């Protein structure tokens, strides 16, 4: 192994940094340019958004998992520096990953779009960086855009965020402008890590992934000491002990190293089979020479939305459990527990950080594990207070106790900040009000833009608030929110009955004022979605024993299967194919076939409500 002097010299040349930005301001493109400029990847390997390794990330153009990469940079002073670059996601659902990565870094590159300026997540992310005492390097990106106004953005960064932006790098990641300057600033402005090479080992786990050969692979920031293959290590919170089989760095492919030392960011493998032994936030120490204290960890992440996941084929229940367990290894914020539905059989109640997270998990289950799923409408967690004062948490609407037994219900509220040009303040307020928002304050960022702050029920935010916000402000508004606690609301449960039978998976919870309308819309919607049978199917919405609306799915009049036998063979094949595909997402509930779409109709119903309202005005 290298001498302490060599290590000390190397430590002075390390720069650990993260890149933070509002979504789409260009983090991933800047990371790519850094990899390119430092010749970390060959040209052949270079492809756009190299760090976004999941297919899903590429297709959607978003970063979901962060990635830590080591690159070597030869600076103008002739010396070679080791950069550990941690890419972070920008979407609000994944802000948890941002805060985790920031705890591993000493500096943060703050990317701001030269045409858009400071947005809601720019603020949220940069404040996280400031809280973590990171040196912040502002970069004004996309200066090639015709609408770019770098000087105005520079002033905005100074006025709104309150950091010095006089030396902000003016860049176009797309055209490679400003990258050399940025690399130099990383060397001169971001401090080298401080950490005692001779102290007992303390390494912070900030990510983990599962490898079928090597077991759980941990991404760590070594704060003090040294870790190498053969070391006996202990996880200070879980108490589990393992022997290190391999350490190394990603560059961006895994490269084995003899050791990782204080200041390094790299990976550790120790044939760990159980993710619970080594959760992100835990500290690794050496069994022979343990550290006295664990490093400060992370706040555990609580899911914001829950939905039921059921295999379309009941025999695939165990496969679904296995798939969820595997995904959990890679995604510590995913939670699930078994759940039974009279209508859908055996499945899992699954907790997500938000709707995008839910979407991503569902798609990964389908693609990577070949699962066919029925998903119930997402729900937040309600607090129901019973007459005797007992509080129960309800994350599945069908489990909400009868109104007669409940004294009151509370729902989660968020504090939302919406940054928007002056002209759209009216539209934002109208939307927030319609979503039961309570106005807090409004701050002017400059003469043209405002930060509008509201208290809004989380259930209203997660469904379609963001889409509505974008469409009512022509894409100009940006949103950030944080959970602020529970408030009492006048909520009731609506049950749905098909052919006289209550279908538990279709129950939902609404504010009393919207109950009548939502009941009417859901029955109308289900009438459209549920396929006809050779008998009449009544669709009813009920509050307790009281039916509040009803529609009827008419019986077949003629045999539609005869259609398949007519026409050209191509058309027939297509029809059969379509039927097969449609069937996949169908669940028989009693005598009625209920397609996947029906379980999401609750969300759709909301769209229609607003549409109807809009039409009236
Ligand atoms: N014109 C122009 N477009 C750019 C520039 N940098 C990035 N883009 C484009 O902006 C879009 C978003 O860039 P990304 O790098 O994916 O943004 P991001 O911030 O990483 O986004 P997330 O990963 O989703 O958080 C892409 O279409 C890029 O091609 C630039 O300097 N100029």
Automatic annotation (TrEMBL):
Keywords: Cell membrane, GTP-binding, Hydrolase, Membrane, Nucleotide-binding, Protein biosynthesis. PROSITE patterns: G_TR_1, G_TR_2. GO terms for molecular function: GTP binding; GTPase activity; ribosome binding; translation elongation factor activity. InterPro entries: EF-4 (IPR006297), EFG_III/V (IPR035647), EFG_V-like (IPR000640), EFTu-like_2 (IPR004161), G_TR_CS (IPR031157), LepA_C_sf (IPR038363), LepA_CTD (IPR013842), LepA_IV (IPR035654). It holds the Pfam family GTP_EFTU_D2. It catalyses: GTP + H2O = GDP + phosphate + H(+). Its EC number is 3.6.5.n1. SUPFAM superfamilies: EF-G C-terminal domain-like, P-loop containing nucleoside triphosphate hydrolases. GO terms for cellular component: plasma membrane. It is a peripheral membrane protein. It is an enzyme of class 3 (hydrolase). GTP binds at residues 24-29, 141-144. The keyword Membrane applies. The keyword Protein biosynthesis applies. One of its GO terms (biological process) is positive regulation of translation. Transmembrane segments: none annotated. It is found in: Cell membrane. Residues 12-194 form the Tr-type G domain. HAMAP family: LepA. Required for accurate and efficient protein synthesis under certain stress conditions. May act as a fidelity factor of the translation reaction, by catalyzing a one-codon backward translocation of tRNAs on improperly translocated ribosomes. Back-translocation proceeds from a post-translocation (POST) complex to a pre-translocation (PRE) complex, thus giving elongation factor G a second chance to translocate the tRNAs correctly. Binds to ribosomes in a GTP-dependent manner. Belongs to the TRAFAC class translation factor GTPase superfamily. Classic translation factor GTPase family. LepA subfamily. This is Elongation factor 4. It comes from Weissella oryzae (strain DSM 25784 / JCM 18191 / LMG 30913 / SG25).
